[in-house]
Amino acid sequence: MSATRVLVLNSGSSSVKYQLLDMRDSSRLAAGLVERIGEQSSRLKHTPLATDGDPREWTGPIADHDAALKAVSEELSKDGLGLDSPELAAIGHRVVHGGKTFTEPTVIDEAVLAEIERLIPVAPLHNPANLTGIRTARALRPDLPQVAVFDTAFHTTMPESAARYAIDVETADAHRIRRYGFHGTSHAYVSRATAKLLGRAPEDVNVIVLHLGNGASASAVRGGRCVDTSMGLTPLEGLVMGTRSGDTDPAVIFHLARVGKMSIDEIDTLLNKKSGLVGLCGDNDMREIRRRIDEGDAQAELAFDIYIHRLKKYIGAYYAVLGTVDAIAFTAGVGENAAPVREAAVAGLETLGPVVDRELNAVRSDEPRLISPADARVKVAVVPTDEELEIATQTYALVARH
Question: Which of 61, 63, 131, 211 is the 20 to 30 A CA-CA neighbour of 1?
Answer without folding.
Answer: 131
